[in-house]
Design brief:
Layout lengths: L6 H17 L6 H14 L2 H30 L3 E3 L10 E3 L3 H25 L5 H28 L9 E3 L1 H28 L11 H4 L1 H23 L3 H12 L13 H60 L12 H7 L10 H49 L7 H12 L14 H25 L1 H14 L10 H12 L8 H23 L6 H31 L3 H24 L9 H10 L49 H9 L25 H36 L1
Antiparallel strand pairs: 1-2, 1-3
Amino acid sequence: MNDPGLDEPIDDASKQVQENVDHRHKPGPQDDVDEDQDLRSFLMPTRWWYASTAFPLIAGTFGPMANAFSICALVENWRVQIPPGGTEEHGIDIPDPHWLIAVNALSLVSALAANLSLLLNMARRVPFRIAQPITITGFWVASVLLIALISVASHAFAAPGVQDQALTQAYYYAIFAAGLYQIISYLMCLTVYGAYRGHYSRDFKLTMAQRTLMLQTISFLVYQLLGALVFSKIEGWKFLDAVYWADFTSLTIGIGADFVPTTHLGRSLLFPFAFGGITILGLVVGSIRSMILDRGKRKMAARLTEKTRVNLVQKVEKATTANGSTMRNGPMGLEKETAAALTLQPGDQALSEKARREAEFEAMRRVQQRAITLKKYYSLMLSTFAFAFLWTIGALVFYHTEKNQQWSYFESLYFAYTSLLTIGYGDFQPISNSGKPFFVFWSLLAVPTLTILISDMGDTVVKTIKEATIWLGEITVLPSDEDSTRERLKAGLYNVTLGKIDSLQAKSRDLEASSKVKAGRDAGTQARGQALPPRQRRRRQADEDRLAADFEEHEKIGEAIARSHGEVTEEVKHHYRRTLIAQIRKVYNDSAAATPKKYSYAEWAYFLRLLGEDENDASYHIRPRGHPEDQATKPNAPRKESSPESPEADRDGHRETSTSAEVDGARDSSGSSVATQGWSWIGNQSPLMGDKEESEWLIEKLFQRLEESLRDIKQEPERRTRSGNQQGEL
């Protein structure tokens, strides 16, 4: 249950829904605004990302949970009379006064209205400015009403004529509900504050899958409460005891003891109930991991990338100021030549512009690698801390709630540990009226937390153990890519030292790049269109390939006709469009790969030439600065004239630079030349920065240039007509 394995199905369903939404979207001027918003989102401080995305998702997850706890607080009495020689779990109910029931019900209605408003806002049925005041006010009022009842019940709530009485599970469920309502209302206040301060738009930037998380949570909790109601009637349990049983059953903890089905009907209904509960919980846990935490990790990676980049740029600036464009030691393990090239100005005669730009590119790749490594271990540290916190603090609470059982703190740790790992021996179990509600709340938090910890360990600790095992096998009996045992030891030592041995860096990078390229090619054909059924996927793929091939063939024929008629300009345009189509098909295949492709500098230089920019031209480039506001805009298919260069082939079969026809086509398709602001590979406007994958960024820019060229075809007859009219007037 710790790893339901539903990440891919959830992600596929999300992609399929998103594709249907995107299919209806027509490109327009708003797309440029959206791109700027994407960049601002990437550079957004983490606190505002939490306010805009994480807090609404937290509210959508814990709001229904608080509603469920409010229902538990309403359905049973808050006090019991302890019989002589008995305990509170076997107490006799004391009826609640009518005013308590009325206020409790009013609190539940207020919270349900707040949750409904939040759900409709996430579904884009109610605008942000209307929904959020209702949500915040509803949760806050519900919390205040419950807090008032809790305060009265804890001090002046003694029943007349009753000597020994105790508070029931319903009272403690009210405490958890009030706390959750209060926290959610304050979190949503921060969300509204950030929106009205202009840090992000006044709308939830959530994906379709994220918006369904609240519905999944509601489904799970409704399923639990209805199941508890059915089993309470069948087995003769109190409803809240049945809720406790349903919780440890669906979470596969299986404490057992006093709460196990004993009737034939109860045992028969357990089969479908347990299966359904585990399935729905798996959906919720998988959604939390794949749609909240993965995006949280992505935001963490974005911030770490930006901080690492700024740190590198500041070191370069410091070295340039202090030593006059020299750096003795390369930061982040960069080679001295690369580090020295970073201190040069664009167009410096000490080094060719292309070599200087390639040094920037390699430095940015190193920044990305460092950020990814830091992200993995930061995530592991956070999830480990969360697990340890829930384990130790949960054990401390159980130590106090189960004092009548005389648990030691070590025994509480033992019980909490076996529950977290869903072992559930059953030798220890909470029986107090405060321990059972806390166990329900604590277990709903703890099990997903353990799932996240296991996922993070898979990216770090488990991966290291796996690589070490493979390495030990390679130096003994398993086949290896290295020729000798000495080379195998070196390769393993490089992995252990995280690449600090300079003599192996180049070889390791080549091996890693080649393995990633192979993995991307192998996975590309498999991952393409996974959200669709196999037959529909094959049909759609065939249609797309046939359409692209027909378009490419059409441009090829047009190029040949223009060449035969001696129309050089038209020949250039047809050749340029044919090249664009061919590269779009290639990049599209790369974008569908399971492992996102990282393009080499030669490939990037070629693509930028297709977009009308020359890496050899220093006028496009600037020195990076450490602050985002000092940077220019991201390259957006620049349209400045470039001097043609002869094609050169790289080892992947791509030309390092485009032909003069392609350069002219890039220029002619967009009209007159337009100067663009400069940018740097290690600037925050670099194509390597941002939330988009490299292939996704490239395919958007290539499509933009193709659209511009096609619009040029449409406008050509009008230009010819105007030209003919002007000549007739003359």
